[in-house]
Every structure is written in C-alpha cells, then in structure tokens.
Design a protein that fits this description.
globular; alpha/beta; 8 helices
C-alpha cells in the first residue's frame, strides 16, 4: 500500500476564498494571501517523502497550476465532486481509500505552516488506527486520514466549533480507533493573522505568505 497526501485547494479568486477574512480585509487581499498559502504549501511538499495529490474545486486547476508555477507539474490532480464539503470529502475517501486500500490523508490549504513531519506522523498512526485527526483551535480540523473508507461524516455539520469532536465521536460509535496529530490553527478570521505573523518571521519556508502579509500591512 502507498500512503498519499491530498491537499484540498480552491482557485484564489476574490469572493470565492477566505470569505470570512475578506469581510475584514477585502476579497482581493484575502485571495492574494490565500495564493501565498498555496504556493508555500506546494513548495514545502514538492520534495515530501510520500506522494502528494491536489484535490481541487471544479475548474480550479488551471489557476492553481499557475500559482504553483511548476511545483506540482507531476502531481496527481483529482477534481472535487459533491454539493458541499461533506460530500466532497466522502467522494475522496470512497474513491481512494476504498478502491485502492491506501492510507489516505487529506489536509486543508488554510494552514500554510503545515509541515511534512505532521503528515508522516499521521501515516504512522494509520498503521494502528482507523482514523486520524488534526484539530484546529476553533474546533474544526485541518487534517483527516483513513486507511479504509468509513462514513465518519454522517450527521456532522462542517465549519462548526464541534466538527472535529463530532467526527471523533462518530468514529467511536462505529468502533474505530482514532489517532490524533498536533492541534494548530487555520486562517479564517482576521485574529488568526496574529498567530501567523510570528511564524512568517521565524521560518524560511513561508516566503510567499510573508510577502502577502507584508503587502497587506503596507496597504493598511
């Protein structure tokens, strides 16, 4: 079996990404910042010691490919299917985990600080657990992985302060073993930028996020 990471991403179009953040800083600025997230994640995971695929919103790949600028030229690209994020997650895990039996990890592109070591830890946990979760501080999750398809999404409302724990509880009801990787933050609100700023100053692998933040600060 071959473990594979999938990075969920949208085209960085104003009005379609980071909409909650956009209410505070504007849709064009939030889209520019999100493009920096995607570029930094693409660069960091280009040399990861495991296969990486991009799980993209319908029609998004041409724009994402331009943002990535060759970093994912050989990557596997799968277009999301489903009317909402619950169905789109179901589609990925049904398609990949069920059909191939491969340990599968899906991460969001809203946490540009994510490091390959966390994904490696998740794959390690899937050796002894059915499900692995990485929570974000607001109660959601940035990472979910399975080694076979289980519908842990049934009855769970996405984008809530209880989504991660509801998935974990659903897994327990199904008799599944749940592993956890470290909790971090995602960038959804303007307050989250204050968690991001210290990282862009101390890490060399957040170049494009740093530039986008600097542009945002310069236009304030």
């Amino acid at each position: 079996m071959t473990p594979r990471l999938w990075i969920a991403a949208k085209a960085p179009r104003p009005g379609e990404v980071k909409t909650r953040l956009a209410r505070a800083i504007g849709s064009a600025r939030s889209a520019h910042l999100y493009a920096g997230f995607v570029r930094d994640l693409g660069a960091r995971f280009a040399d990861a010691p495991f296969p990486v695929g991009w799980y993209v919103a319908p029609g998004a790949w041409p724009e994402l490919a331009r943002v990535l600028d060759g970093l994912a030229s050989n990557a596997t690209v799968l277009e999301q299917r489903g009317d909402d994020w619950t169905e789109r997650q179901r589609h990925l895990f049904r398609t990949v985990a069920s059909n191939r039996g491969d340990p599968t990890v899906l991460v969001a592109s809203d946490s540009p600080q994510l490091e390959p070591r966390v994904v490696l830890e998740a794959f390690g946990l899937l050796g002894t657990h059915d499900l692995v979760l990485g929570a974000v501080c607001d109660g959601g999750y940035y990472l979910i992985g399975m080694r076979a398809w289980h519908d842990v999404f049934a009855g769970v409302e996405m984008s809530t302060a209880t989504a991660c724990e509801e998935i974990a509880e659903r897994a327990r009801q199904l008799g599944l073993a749940v592993g956890r990787v470290e909790t971090t933050f995602d960038v959804d609100e303007i307050a989250d930028l204050e968690l991001l700023r210290p990282l862009v100053e101390s890490r060399s692998d957040l170049t494009h996020t740093r530039a986008a933040l600097a542009a945002l600060d310069g236009s304030a």
